[in-house]
Amino acid sequence: MAHAAQELVRKLGRLSRVTDEPGKLTRTFLSPAMKRANALVAGWMKDAGLKVRVDSVGNLIGCYEAANPKSKTLLLGSHLDTVRDAGKFDGPLGVLLPIVALADLKRRGVKLPFDVEVLGFSEEEGVRFASAYLGSKGYCGKLTAKDLAMIDADGVSVSEAIERWNGLTPGRSSKRVGVNALHLKAAHKRGDLLGYVEVHIEQGPVLEAKKLAVGVVSAIAGQSRFKLTWTGQAGHAGMTPMALRRDALAGAAEFVSGVEAIARRTPGLVATVGALTVSPGAANVIPGEVVHTLDVRHADDRRRRQALMAIGRLATQIANRRELERRWQRTQENGAVTCSPALTAQLARSMKAIQGKSVSLVSGAGHDGVVMSALCPVAMLFVRCRGGLSHHPDEYASPKDLGVALAVMTDFLERLAAEQGLTPLPAAAGPVFVPGSRRGRNRGK
Ligand code: HGY
Ligand code: MN
Ligand code: MN
Fold it and tell me: Which domain holds residue 28?
């Protein structure tokens, strides 16, 4: 197994032990585990020769500076937060792989003609707060007042969490802390950037079915997330006749299976109710209130919006028939994003050089590239993961496939450097990742 891939596997394993929940991997926005994870990864960034900083929303940023200080910047990265009881690859792979690749370039004495900024976003999953992408939104200066007002299960708002992270006294700093007092403006101007490239596990079955280690991403599906509240009437489970009940859980359950039926009959649509709470939550009390999430996605925004209309009609029918109140709160809305054809073609060229074949697929999963696409061209490299399983502790990508992804990233960096038409790269000290990969030669267009 190539040395660098082994190093990447070691780092992924070490980082996966930094958690807010002993016994499982859970790391959420600005949590104690996030602070420890930033410190650990910052150390690895420094070892690789990167200059490190943490921004006001907890994003970890390491810069591998170019020989020429006026050069443009290439952004590489992903997120360091996780879902609950997560696997070790979703997010961290896209932060640690570039660090290992840059450490190798540094070892070989290779300077690039552009800055490379490695980004470890502090929040992408939307676990602590219903709104996802808080890290990359902060990095792009796109945090809204609505985002900042979101509150977590303990009633702490995003802006208070940010204030605490920055050692400010919650509530006594400026009113709109996240936008003004901490100057959360975009970290770069669009013209300064070559693009954003994210390496991520596929989280689906396509690469495994095609027996390929890596693939590029053509587009990232749009997604809508909601918090729904159903309100009925709590009552005695033994004394209330069925015909006189306004059972919030029975109504929500009918809705959940109705949503599943709509998704099953709509090609390309996925819809999920991932979290649900019942109150008062006692065996002998008819549920008076149910609060649950709803996540709806499709690669085609028009089809997603049509499905949302059908789901809305279903909710109205159920609420009317069961005399329930229901409240919708939209917590996230992202249109589908097409990856940059030019940057993706450059990445695909390296993929073809290393794996001999290139394949392109749509991502049903959301990624920070959705937000970063407002700042610069984006491209993604997917890595095969066993059984397509993700958001699960058994998530797994093989060291061999990680070695291929590392080789693609290194090849991509070296081609990009060569195309910048500047100093040819010193011949590599032999193939570092995958024998026979094209390396070190100064290639033309
Ligand atoms: O939910 C998603 O698609 C991603 O894992 N944040
Ligand atoms: Mn995820
Ligand atoms: Mn992810």
Answer: 2-143+184-221+337-441
Phi-psi region of 354 (alpha: psi -120 to 50; beta: other; left: phi over 0): alpha
Atom of ligand 1 nearest to the CA of 83: 5
CATH number of 312's domain: 3.30.70.360
State yes or no: cis peptide before 280, omega within 30 of 0.
Answer: yes
Query: Domain for residue 168, yes or no?
Result: no
> Residue 355: is its pLDDT beyond 50?
yes
Which numbered atom of ligand 1 lies nearest the CA of 79? 6
**Per-residue pLDDT reduced to its tens digit, 375-418:** 999 999 999 999 999 999 999 999 999 999 999 999 999 999 98
The mean pLDDT of 319-347, rounded to a whole number, is 96
The CATH number of residue 77's host domain is: 3.40.630.10
The verdict on 348 and 294 lying in the same domain is: no
Question: How far apart are the CA of 367 and the centre of ligand 3, in A?
Answer: 6
pLDDT the model gives residue 230: 98
Name every protein residue with a CB atom under 6 angstroms from any ligand 1 atom.
124-125, 132, 365-366
Closest C-alpha to 326, from 237, 249, 272: 249
Whether residue 268 is found in the same domain as residue 403: no
- The structure's pTM equals 0.87
* Tens digit of each residue's pLDDT (9 = 90 or more) over 100-120: 999 999 998 888 999 999 999
Q: Which ligand is nearest to the CA of 126?
A: 1
CA dihedral angle for residue 118, residue 121, residue 124, residue 127, rounded to 10 degrees? 140
pLDDT value for 421: 60
Q: Which ligand 1 atom sits closest to the C-alpha of 223?
A: 3
Does 355 share its domain with 323? no
Residue 6 CA to its chain's centroid (Å): 24
Ligand 3 centroid to residue 368 C-alpha, Å: 8
Q: Is 224 helix (H, G, I), strand (E, B) or coil?
A: strand
Which residues are within 5 Å of ligand 2 (an ion), measured at CB? Answer: 90
Atom of ligand 1 nearest to the CA of 132: 6
Q: Are residues 28 and 40 in the same domain?
A: yes
Give yes or no: residues 131 and 258 share one domain: no
**Do 74 and 208 belong to one domain?**
yes
Q: Are residues 270 and 382 in the same domain?
A: no
Mutate to test the pocket of ligand 1, among 198, 332, 391 (most ligand atoms within 8 A of CB): 391
**Ligand 3 centroid distance, CA of 173 (Å):** 32
Helix and strand numbers (H, E) in the chain are 12, 16
Q: Which of 84, 202, 203, 370 to mutate to test the pocket of ligand 1 (most atoms within 8 A of CB)?
A: 203
